[in-house]
Specification:
The chain is an alpha/beta fold. The protein has eleven helices and twelve strands. Helix 2 links the parallel strand 5 and strand 6. Keywords: Carbohydrate metabolism, Fucose metabolism, Glycosyltransferase, Transferase. InterPro entries: AtOFT1-like, GDP-Fuc_O-FucTrfase. Belongs to the glycosyltransferase GT106 family.
């Protein structure tokens, strides 16, 4: 409506918002391909660089409302008002207020998903993810060659793996318990034992599987996450896999981007339905399945299945999970839900 370019955002490199000295911003184009984004999102959203501005200091401050009382209708009306009058004399409009322009609950899932299709990691980060995935599959092939799956004549070219966004870190356990109390929902927190049991009960998983555990190592207060898994499930985290050196070279943000890619590419993904990180991975995997012509993975076996370990499903395994693309807002993605389409 405004026919304006969105100035390229910067991203925080740190996990800890209180550690001011670590909050060095990372430019969007250090994580995602800038030109590729504009090409893929052509006629939907366009990014611009601050360096392209003629005057970086003179801007129009547009005050925003805050909180959930700021409705879709009020957003739309302010947009209409902002498309005319003195605002046109300014090259830059700055949205000022507690919450970003168009409070994200207002976005339909399909529109949000369209933006995600335009996000392509820069080569440097994608190559780091390639190294991790290759290492997982290489170990998987060796493992399969020692089992009946690796009998002579069978194909070892593709070694499937399970990726688990295993949220058992200190910060998550504090957050999820408070969230359970506020929302009066018991299916948010999951112990290590509960996760291991439910993953082991996934129907059709097979007798041997490589399991990659995506955890925030700096916040992990449990050195036993590799112990106690069902026989046939072989768990790996960064150190055991021998890729911790790849991650340590980068800030927390880039480490998360690598883990996101590793989880997204997994043959089976298992996460927590109240985690935004898990929800975004499932959104991307759902888009992939839909492009194959499948609109629901519930009750059928499809490629790239996803599960939520915090919700019990078939045979006391994790619940099947597919993003509901018809949702009119992002509540289920942004805040989590135990109603996950299946």
């Amino acid at each position: 409506m405004l026919n304006r370019t969105l100035l390229m955002p910067s991203l925080s490199a740190s996990l800890f918002y209180k550690e001011i000295d670590l909050l060095h911003p990372i430019s969007f184009d250090q994580v995602f391909q800038y030109e590729r984004f504009n090409s893929l999102c052509n006629r939907f959203v366009r990014l611009g660089r601050y360096s392209d501005l003629g005057n970086q200091t003179r801007k129009y401050d547009l005050r925003k409302g805050s909180g959930r009382k700021w409705t879709v209708e009020r957003d739309l009306e302010q947009l209409k008002q902002s498309s005319r009058g003195p605002i046109n004399k300014y090259q830059v409009i700055s949205m000022a207020g507690k919450n970003p322009f168009l409070w994200h609950d207002h976005w339909p899932v399909k529109d949000y998903a369209r933006v995600f299709e335009c996000l392509v990691l820069v080569d440097e980060i994608a190559k780091e993810a390639d190294k991790v995935v290759s290492k997982i599959r290489r170990i998987g092939r060796k493992l399969r060659s020692k089992t009946n799956f690796g009998a002579e004549g069978s194909s070892l070219s593709h070694a499937p793996y399970v990726a688990i966004h295993m949220r058992v870190e200190i910060d998550w356990m504090i957050h999820c318990k408070k969230l359970e109390q506020r929302s009066r929902i018991s299916q948010i927190c999951s112990s290590k034992q509960e996760i291991m049991e439910r993953v082991g009960n996934i129907v059709g998983l097979g007798s041997t599987a490589i399991v990659y555990l995506a955890v925030a190592d700096s916040l992990l207060n449990d050195s036993s996450i590799l112990d106690g898994w069902k026989r046939g499930l072989v768990p790996f985290e960064k150190k055991k896999l021998g890729v911790d050196g790849i991650y340590k070279k980068h800030s927390y943000l880039i480490q998360s981007a690598i883990d996101y890619e590793v989880c997204s590419r997994a043959d089976i993904f298992v996460g927590n339905s109240f985690s935004t990180f898990s929800s975004l991975i499932v959104l991307e995997r759902t888009q992939r399945v839909i492009r194959m012509g499948i609109t629901s993975s519930c009750g059928i076996d499809v490629r790239w299945p996803s599960y939520a370990y915090n919700i019990p499903g078939e045979s006391n395994g994790p619940q099947k999970w597919m993003t509901n693309m018809s949702n009119s807002n992002l509540k289920a993605i942004s805040y989590g839900s135990n109603a996950i389409s299946c």
